[in-house]
Structure formats: C-alpha cells, structure tokens
Amino acid sequence: MLKYSIKRILLMIPILLGVIIIVYSISYFMPGDPVQTVLGATGYTQEQYDMTAHRLGLDVGLPMQIFNYLKNLVTKGELGVSYYTGRSVMEEVVQRAPISIGIGILSSLVLIVISVPIGIISAVKQNSVLDYCISVLAIVLASVPGFWLALEFILLFSLKLRWLPASGLSTWKHYILPVACNSLGSIAMLARMTRSSMLEVIRADYVRTAKAKGVKYEVVITRHALKNALIPIITVIGAQFSMIIGGSVIIENIFSIPGMGSRLVAAISNRDYTMLVGITVVLSTFTMLMVLLTDLMYAFVDPRIKAEFESLNGRRRPVIKPPAPGGPNVAVSGAVTDGVTSGHVSGAGIGKGGAKP
Amino acid sequence: MTDHLLEVNNLNIRFNTSEGTVCAVNDISFAISPGETLGLVGETGAGKTTTALSIMKLVAQPPGEYHGGSVLFDGKDILQETEGRLRHIRGKDIAMIFQDPMTALNPVMRIEDQIAEVIKLHTDCSAAEALIGAAEMLETVGIPADRGKEYPHQFSGGMKQRVVIAMALACSPKLLLADEPTTALDVTIQAQVLDMIRDMRVKLGTSMLLITHDLGVVAETCDRVAIMYAGEIVEQGTLEQIFHRVAHPYTIGLFGSLPSLDKKVERLNPIVGLMPDAANLPEGCKFHPRCPKARRYCAQVHPELSPAMSWGDDGGHPVRCHMFAAPEPYEASEPLGLVDGLFDEDFTGNMNMAYLLEGKIGRRDEDGADVPQGADVHQGACLPQDPGGQRDGASATGSGTNVTVGASDPEDVAGADTQPAGAPTTTLLEVRNLKKYFQTPSGMLHAVDNVSFTLDRGKVLGVVGESGCGKSTLGRTILGILDATDGQVLYAGEDITHAKGRRRKELQKKMQIIFQDPYSSIDPRMPVWRLIADPLLANGMYRKGKELTREVYRLMDTVGLARRLSGAYPHELDGGRRQRIGVARALALNPDFIVCDEPVSALDVSIQAQILNLLQDLQAEKNLTYIFVTHDLSVVKHISDDILVMYVGSMVEKSHTDALFEAPLHPYTKGLLSAIPVANIDVPKQRILLQGELQSPIEPAPGCRFANRCSYATPECAAAEPPFEEVMPGHFVACHKVREINAL
To answer: How far is B151 from chain A (nearest CA, A)?
Structure first.
C-alpha cells in the first residue's frame, strides 16, 4: 500500500509540470501586457519598460521563462514574485490556502453528513412519498446556481433577518453562509448517487444471504449493504471536492473571504500571472492529493481493490483470480485515470476560465 | 398430517409488474418429512426459487404478493409470522444455500465474520466464541480454519460454496433450502459439494428442499421429486415413480432432452418451443402448446392434479394432465397435431409456421413423428397408450429417434457408422505443439501448453475440461483470435499460425466460432437481421439490398429462426434464439470449420437439446468440421467423434469417443466421468471422488499437473512431465502410471 502511494505521489510530478506549462503558456498568450499593467497606461519611457520587463523576467522567450520559473521552484521552493504587489507568491499562498482549503473541507463534510443519510433513506424507502420529496428537493437545489443562492442568502439572512454576517471570516458565524452555498448544489448529486448505489446493493445476492441468516434489517443495511455501496459514493465525493474548490473562486468573491479564490480573480484582472500560476499549482496539487486519498479510500473499503493495488507493486500473490466482471476493478482503473486527468484539467481550467474576462 | 416438518398448501405468489400481474407460483402444495429430501425440478422461470424464498417469507414485497395459501413449518404458518419471529427462524431452523456462490457472500467481510454472524445471532455466545464456532464449521466443510481471515475474492467457486454451506449449517437447521447449489460449479467440484451436503444432512438429520434443473443430481440426492412448469407442480412422486413411471409429457420431454452418458442416442428429443412468459400464460393446460399429446380439450380446460395410472400396488402419483384427470373428454376431442419441427418454436405468442427448408421439413417430420418415445429411455413409461408398434416401425426405418435400443442394437450402430461415409477423409486441421501463455503480475500463465492433434474434414473433436483448463483459449488460438506463443496451426496443410492481413481475412471466412454466452456475445443495439448480415457486410460479400435480405432470410431459415423476428432486438429473444443468431452468424460466410465454444452451457436442457440437434443437422448437411469445446461430458459424447481431455492447459487423454467412455485410461478422466450425476436410478454408481482443486496454471510446477489430486501419484509423477503416448491404438494418454493402473 505504501509503495503504491509513493508511486502515485511521484506520478504527480510530471502532471504538475504539465499544469505549469499549460497555465503559464495560456497567461503568456493572453491579451494584455503585465509590464504595462505595472507601469500604468501611459507616461513611461522605453528604457523604463525594458528595465521593468527585465526585473520581472519577462524579457526572454516563453520556454526560457518557464524554465526560469521551474528552476526557481525546484532550487528555492519559490513560486515567484507577484507582478502587482511585489510580494512573494509563496508567502501569500501560505497565508490564504488554509482559508480556502478549510472552507472546502468543511463544505465537503457538511455535504457528506447531509447527502449520504438522505440517499440511504431514499433507497430504503424507495418510491415512497419521502423518496419523491427528497428527489424533488435535490433536483431544485442542483439546478440553482451557487452564486445566485449566495446572493439570495445574503439578502435573506444578512440584510433582512440580520442573523448572519455577509462578509469577512472572523467568527464561526461567518462560515455558515459560504459553506452552505458551497455544499448545497452538490448535495443533490451525492444523494442521488448514494440512492442508486444503495438500491443496486440492496438487491444483491449477499444482502439476500444476510436476510436469510436472520440479520435485522437495519443491520443488513448498515453492516452488509452500506460498505459495499461506498465505492461510487467515494468517487462522487472526490469529484465534488474538486468542484467545491473550483466553486470557491466565486463564493469567496461574493462573501469577501480572503482566500485563494478571491486572489485568483484579482490576479487575472491585474495580469498578475505569477500569482495566477502559483495559485493554480497549489490548487492542482491539492486536488491531486484528494484524488489519491479517494483511491486509497477504495482500498480501505474493498479488500479486492486493496489486493489489486498491492499486485501493482509486482509482488507475487498466491492466488490470482481473473478480475471481477465490470466490478470494482474497472471502477478503480477508471477512477485513477479520470481522477488524475480531472485534477489536471480542473487545475488548468481555473486559470483558463478566469482568463476570459 | 402433523408428521411433516414442512407443509406448503395451495401457495400462490404474484408479482405486480409494469406489464401486469404475473403469477409466479400457482397453487403449489407439497410436504417434506423430517430427514427427507425433496427435489424441485424445472427449467428457468418455472418458479422454483420464488417457492423456496417464500418458505422463509423472503419474497420481496412489493412487487411480490402472497395470494393465499399457507406454509406450515413445525405446524406454524410462516406467512402469518411477524418479522421479529421470522428472524429467529431464518438461519436457525430454516437455512438456505444459494445458487451462485460468487455473489452470495459479502465481498467486503471476512469469511469467518460472515459465518460467526449467524452463530452469534442465534445462540447466546460471545463474539470470540462465535469465531471459534466459525472456525470449526470451516474445518467441517474442509477448509483450513486459518483461511477464515481471508475475503471471498481469495476463494475459488467451490470453496465459496463450501463457505455458504458452512454458514447455512452453522446452527444445525431443521430444514435446508438448496437453490441450485452446484449449478455454477465444475463437475468434479459439484461431486465434492453434493457428497458433502449428503454427509452433513445425514449427520445432522436435516430435511432438504433441493432445487435443480439437473435430473442427474436429483437421481443421486433426492427421496422424492416434484416437477414444476410455469409456476405449477405438474408431477410429484417418489424417485422410483418419477424415474420409472414417468407420466406427464413435460417430464417425459425433460428426460428426452438429456444427452445420455450410458446410452447412444442419435438425436435428442427436445421439447418444442419455450416456457411461456409468466405474464402471458396460455389458457387451459399451461403445457399444451408444447405438448405432443395435446388435444383441443387441453387448450380449453385447466387440468387438476390427479393420480396417474396405478402400477401394481402403487396408488399412482399426482400428475397434472388430462390424460389422467379427464380421459373421456380428452379422448373425445380432436388432437391439436403439433409435430416437432413443423412449427416455429414460438408457440407462446402467435403460432407461426417456420420457414423451413423444404428438404428439412421432410427429415424433421420423419424424426419428430414419434416424439414421446424419448421417455422410453426409462423403461416402462406409463403412458396410457404406449405406441410400441409405432416405435418398432420407427426403428425399422432407421430414423434417428430410436433411443430405446441404444448402442447394443447392431443395426443401429451400423446406421450410425455409415452416415459420414462418402467423402474421403482428409486432414483439415493440424495443431502441433501449440502454446499460448499470458503474462500476469504473478508470472506466466500457461493457458495452453503443448497441445497437438489432427482433425479430419467432417469430424467433430470434443475438447473437454473444467473451467480454467485452457479449452476456450485453445479454440481461440487456433482461429488466430489470440496469437500463439509457440507451435503451429496447419489448416488444409498450410501453416496459418501467424497469418496476417488479407490471408487472415480469407481464413476467417473458412473458420468461424460460436460463442458461449448468447447474451453478451451479440450487440444489443442491432436487430436480428443486422446481426446476421454483419459478417456478410464486413467481408464485402453483399451490399445492403434485396440480395442481402434474401441471404439473411435463408440463414434464418437454416437455423430455424422465424423470418418475422428479423426486426427484433436481442433482449426480446430468449437464450435459445439468441444462440441461433450466433449459429447463423457463424454460418453466414459458409465456413468449413467452426469452433463451438460451449454453445449450449448457458441454456436450459430443452433448449440445449434443440440447439444440439441444429448443430448436428448442420454438420451432417454441410459436412462441417467442429471443435466442440465444453465442460459437459454428456453433451460432448453426444456430438463428438473424438474427444480430447484437457487439464490445466495440457492434454491428458485423447481417443475415439466410444473408447474413451467405455474405458477411460487417465485417472483424471476416470474421476471426471464418475463425477457426472446420471439421471438413472437403476445403475448403482461407483464414484471415484477427486479431492482438491485444479492447480494454478500460473508458472505450473514441473511434472504431472494432475499429481496433486491423483490417488496413484508417486514422487516420480511430480518430477517429470508424463509423455503423451499412444497406449492403445488411437488412444493417447499422458500418465506415468497408465499401464499399472489399467493393467495393460
């Protein structure tokens, strides 16, 4: 297992390299000139311009710029200096990352605590009034955009009822609205997934075996069914976590939270590309770690997947069974590759998406 | 009737589906005494599993619904018990063994925990004591207790089924419900598991309801038998009554569908048609659309269970057939005149004439004229009018149905031998030292190791072995679907082992394959005509148009698919029809050689017999050459000229079919043959039980691969690989001890 994890962490290096190259290149080819942004629109000489460009390291070609950036990263552990504020990007990220990631984790926990039980209840009481109500509510929540919900919440809870603060992040009360807005949209997805996964498992032969043993229904559900149903649920949680991190860009702006998301938006409008690349690198690293964690969770839940991971080490196992048809093996291999790519893409996607305005 | 442990009275179970109410179980009554075993026999969809589940009140509600009747267990009605009370009965007094051991165990729980759970539920013991109990149970079923720490995926199918049995017997239940406990297992493992169930039952005095479709298993295990058809019991009696005085035409048909091991049968006598859809049952007798004895009265009135003709002091056993229930109106009404082969197999929906080739109608007619005589395999069927004279007439004409006489009749044997005469025999296929290895994370998997044989044109070679012995891989490697690791495949004298490109494409027209699973081997989104046209279009032989349509229809006729089905999609068809599509696809390019890769193992016996007959007819008609891969020895005996027995990738015995079955020489073949349950209660069986399981084909140890299971094995066997030598003329065996064992 350890060997597998180390292998996966090492695999993150080339992916990060790819992320850096892609995001850096996109910034490079984007319209707008960082030097000009730093110097102001008018009133500078060509000499001043060249000096600033040299200071920022922008007077060389793209491959050289990327090379310098990587050299800096590897030798000094530095993510460069912000064009706009002149502060070290690493410093700023270290300061802001815990806030964003904290909100992300908190939102995910809320998501899990609400959606999984809802999903189980809908599955057990399939086609009941309760099941329909939950489904309708989930679909309504899923179809409302997060930013609109955030604005409505501010209107209702902050301005009208004056229960909760609308911006900042100083007390626990400040966390409620951002976390709620961040997780509500994903609840629908996860609850539906839990429901269908549970429904499939409830009909499985081994659940019937458990019933035939005389096991109580509640115990059948929690002990026999749930653990088997977890694989797709974990997959969705992993994917939703990446989405929540992505969504924080908008939520942090609306609630004026000093996290990485709000900084990222500012960096794009300021043409502060070092900051843009730096934040993207941190976000994608974190996303990839989450994907790895998801995969390790699979092994924790399902001994078959654990065996699979261990055999990837090339260690000899006494018994080799052909892979279960369409079962978890497929799910895992899919998830591994998907996970890596989705981490990659969503990391780059933030930079790209933000670049448009 | 208080001496019965279980009494099921007039049980009715319905399912509410989107297509309406389905009567899965219809007015069923039976009883089981303490210590007795009742066999519940029927084909897929007969309602056997639903019946068993209802005994524990485990039929899911909804969609299931108990519609009257009672299930008295120890005098109390299970159907009236509360969930809480039922939980104390389930697992403790009544336990169940499920059909598929692969899915019956929770994949994420340790084996010992799964067994301990049931012990802890029903006895007052601590978790630690329950685990000790679980370890004891594992030892009892022949699994080392320390393997209890493992998970189900680390166990083979046979071992999983042992675990399921250990779980079921952990609390010494009074009644055991065994739902096809060995269907998913290999035949030697099946023999081990059946033996174990028998031993445990005797030890614990448990009664058993054994659900199966295999009359052989019934003959070896049960005291009494109930035959189910379309949710009803159609015949019920003691083993002797069912096997010697079989009365219902359906039961007779079941017997006729079985390829027999101990008798030579030229052609099987399958039941025509299919089990009707439970949502759309026919009026009157539910079997009448398939019944060769059906008369107008059968289609109008539903028969009651009434005693069959008594036989000596036997009072007659209950049969649901008008021939016994209401002989006068039955005799008075006109026969429906269904003759095997003249109609499309689809009687359940619209009755349709099949578009059979003209020549074919003649032959089938001749064959099918005396359908019920399949029963005569079992001496003394008590049909009211036993048409003995007619039977003799059939034998005299030399038609293939005369199963009665078997191989002992010289005339018949002669008839069988003259059949392939005509074309001079030439070698079509030669395989020399063929090897196919696969790289796995744990080492090299020797799927096919050093296989050599020659196959003459127009002959059938049966390749037999248990799962994992490389027989399917062999077929695929010969066809070039898999690339051979080493060795040669010669087709009509030409080395085609590594043929590529255009040559391979040409070869593909000559060499075809019929796959095992008719459900997953055809594209579910293509209609029937497109599926059949596929090989024709892919090879550019036809373009879409009238000619293609004509060719597709011709193929459909050849394999006995009604033309009106050309627009249907695979999911609308049953397994037998899908396999007919598979056969039509293989035939489309007019091949000389076909690999039949377990073509009937996914099918019910009556459908299996239909497909076997089709394959046999086609072979005779087109002088095809088959390699027939199967795990079912009775099927292979029925269809093959020569047999090759494989074990863990290598050949162990090859011989002419009759010689092999009369005198198998290799200890594995002996064990394999004796493991097959025979549907005959008169022949006492001497069983050579093979212990243990197949050796892993991954990096197999040198020496004889069977040595670890062989009772004759000496250190010499494990040291050197035995040569594959001709021990008797035409009889090859790979065994160091073959001469000692067989006193040659």
So the answer is: 7
